[in-house]
């Protein structure tokens, strides 16, 4: 890691801040390394300082890390004020069935829809489609099996939604077994951290 003076740190953090603001979407570590001609450890250290800076209550933005990318985002506690100015509508909530499906995918990914159906005991067609539409899951190739069914996995948007940096940060479960109580427990745990309302829906 490169040694930096206090004034140089401020300058470099300002450059990073400008890049993230202008990008408007997640920026990868390697892109910052190339643009700023700094090594990864130095970038990581600067990001840690920026994260602390944005952690203060008077700041309106937060620094969000997902895997090895960063993005500037507004704080959840300010959403109502932002929505009033921009006229954004409240996003449609996920059904309990969709949340249950998302929980299964998160813990068993990559997984086919047939396997999801077997775990839930009902069809998951509409739930999978809703999650695809919301950008919370995506196709992850096909299984080498008869019919070559599509595999699904979660996206960086999912990690951002549940406030996690890596999929490994999900709450640990000894085993994802069949059974209504465990499915309810896992779905409830997922819902606690999600910025998505749940709504009643069949599947």
TrEMBL record:
Gene3D superfamilies, sorted: Winged helix-like DNA-binding domain superfamily/Winged helix DNA-binding domain
GO cellular component: cytoplasm
Subcellular location: Cytoplasm
Organism superkingdom: Bacteria
Example of a GO biological process term: DNA replication
Keyword Cytoplasm appears in the UniProt entry: yes
InterPro entries tied to this protein: ScpB_csome_segregation (IPR005234), WH-like_DNA-bd_sf (IPR036388), WH_DNA-bd_sf (IPR036390)
Keyword set, alphabetical order: Cell cycle, Cell division, Chromosome partition, Cytoplasm
A Pfam family it matches: SMC_ScpB
NCBIfam families xref list: SMC-Scp complex subunit ScpB (TIGR00281)
HAMAP family: ScpB
Subunit structure as annotated in this protein's UniProt entry: Homodimer. Homodimerization may be required to stabilize the binding of ScpA to the Smc head domains. Component of a cohesin-like complex composed of ScpA, ScpB and the Smc homodimer, in which ScpA and ScpB bind to the head domain of Smc. The presence of the three proteins is required for the association of the complex with DNA.
Role according to the record: Participates in chromosomal partition during cell division. May act via the formation of a condensin-like complex containing Smc and ScpA that pull DNA away from mid-cell into both cell halves.
Family: Belongs to the ScpB family.
Designated name of the protein: Segregation and condensation protein B
The organism of origin for this protein: Eubacterium limosum
Lineage: Bacteria, Bacillati, Bacillota, Clostridia, Eubacteriales
């Amino acid at each position: 890691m490169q040694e930096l003076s206090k004034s140089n740190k401020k300058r470099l953090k300002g450059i990073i801040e400008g890049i993230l603001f202008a990008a408007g979407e997640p920026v990868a570590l390697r892109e910052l390394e190339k643009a700023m001609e700094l090594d990864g450890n130095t970038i990581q250290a600067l990001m840690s300082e920026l994260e602390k800076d944005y952690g203060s209550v008077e700041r309106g933005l937060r620094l969000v890390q997902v895997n090895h990318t960063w993005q500037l985002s507004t704080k959840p506690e300010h959403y109502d004020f932002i929505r009033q100015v921009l006229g954004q509508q409240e996003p449609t909530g996920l059904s309990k069935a969709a949340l249950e499906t998302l929980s299964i995918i998160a813990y068993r990914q990559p997984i086919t829809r047939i396997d999801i159906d077997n775990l839930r005991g009902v069809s998951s067609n509409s739930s999978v489609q809703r999650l695809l539409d919301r950008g919370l899951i995506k196709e992850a190739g096909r299984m080498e099996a008869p019919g070559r069914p599509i595999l699904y996995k979660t996206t960086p948007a999912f990690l951002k939604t549940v406030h996690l940096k890596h999929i490994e940060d999900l709450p640990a479960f000894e085993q994802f077994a069949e059974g209504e109580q465990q499915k309810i427990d896992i779905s409830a745990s997922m819902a606690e951290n999600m910025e998505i309302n749940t709504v009643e829906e069949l599947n």
